Amino acid sequence: MKTIIKDLRTAAGLTQQQLANQVRVTVRTINSIERGEYNPSLVLAYKIARLFNTTVEELCCLKENVTLEEGQHEDQR
User: Which of 10, 41, 69, 70 is most buried, by the most CB atoms less than 10 A from its CB?
Assistant: First the structure.
C-alpha cells in the first residue's frame, strides 16, 4: 500500500501535508503509511481511496488475478 499511496499523491501533485489535511490526519500518519510502518484503518483507507477516485481494494493491491484458494497469482501457476 505504501508505494501506491505515494504514487497517487505525487501524481496528483499533493504534498504529504496537503493529503493529511484532506483526510484529516497528521503528516506523520501519512509519512508512516508511505514508509510501510503503519497500516491505515479501513475508514482512513476509504477516505484516501475516495480522494484519489479509486477503491480500497486497489490501494491494498488486491487484484482479480489473485486466487484466494491457492494464494497465488495466476501467472505463478
Answer: 10
More reliable by pLDDT, 64 or 27: 27
Nearest to 44 by CA among 29, 34, 31: 29
2-67 to CATH, choices 3.60.10.10, 1.10.3290.10, 3.40.30.10, 1.10.260.40: 1.10.260.40
Give the gyration radius of the chain's Cα atoms.
14
What confidence tier does 14 reach under pLDDT thresholds 50, 70, 90? very high
pLDDT over 60 (residue 71):
no
Contact 43, 33 (CB under 8 A): no
